[in-house]
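Just scan this pair:

***
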Amino acid sequence: MTTYAIGDVQGCYDELQALLDEVKFDFRQDTLWITGDLVNRGPRSLEVLRFIKSLGECAVTVLGNHDLHLLAVAYGHEPPKKGDTLASILEAPDRDELLDWLRMRPLIHYDESRHLSLVHAGIAPQWTLQEALAYAHEAETALRADTFNDFLMNMYGNQPEQWSPELKNWDRLRFIVNCFTRLRYVNGNGRLKLKVKGAPGSQPKGCLPWFQAPQRQTQNDKILFGHWSTLGFYNADNVVGLDGGCIWGGKLTAINIDTLVSSAETVPICVPCQQRRTPGEP
C-alpha cells in the first residue's frame, strides 16, 4: 500500500492518467493526495472531477482557488473568466452531485500518524498547526452549510491582509480562505501579499515566500502544497511544493509520501505536459 501526493491537475486528465500509470497506482490498495485545483484551464475538467470522486476514500483532495471559482460560477456569484474551461461541468447531467461533493472537500488535510499536512497554497505564518486546523474548520463549516451561497458571495477580495484573532464574520473567513487557497508571499510581519505571484527572486523588496517568514509557527510541521507553478518542485524549509506547472507546459508531479516520511530526500515522479496556456493569459 502506497500513498502518493500529486500537484495541481487543473483539468489535465490525460496527464493524470499517465502519471498514475507511471507509479503503477492501484486503487484497490493505494491512496492519492492531491493539492487541489482539480479543475479549470485544462481540457478535461469534468473527467478529472468524476474520476477523483469515483476513487472514494482512496483519494484525498483539498480545495484550491480554481475549485472555489467553479462553485462561485456555478451558483451565480462570479461570472466565468475568459480562460475558464468549466462549461462541461456546468452542463453535465451529474453537475449537482459533483458540485455537492466538491463543496464538502477540506481546506487542509492532516495525517496525524505521519505528522504531515496537505494544503493548496499555504498557512498563515502566525498560525500554529492546531490553529490552522481550527480556522479551516470554520470556513469548511460555512461552505458546507445550507447557507453556503452567503459564503460564496462574500469570499472574494484581498482584504484583510493581516491576521488577528479578533477578525469576525466575512473578514475572518475571507482571510482564512485566502491563506489556504491563494497565498504565496508575505512581508516580514506576516501580512499577505496576494498580488505578488512570480518566482522567488522576482518579488518586490520586503516580500518573501510564506514558508520562509520569520517566526513561522509551523516550521516544525511538514506541509505539502501546490498553487505556485513558478516555484515548481520544492523540497526545503520543511515544505514540499508540488505544482510543476502542468497547464503551462511543465510537468505533473507526484511524490511517494511514504518515502518522504522515512527519508529526508524524496525524488519527484513527473510526466511532461502539453502546453495549454502561455504566461500572461488568464
User: Anything to note?
Assistant: The first strand starts at residue 3 and ends at 6. The CA atoms of residues 248 and 277 lie 5 Å apart. The chain has one domain: 3-272. DSSP finds nine helices and twelve strands in the chain.
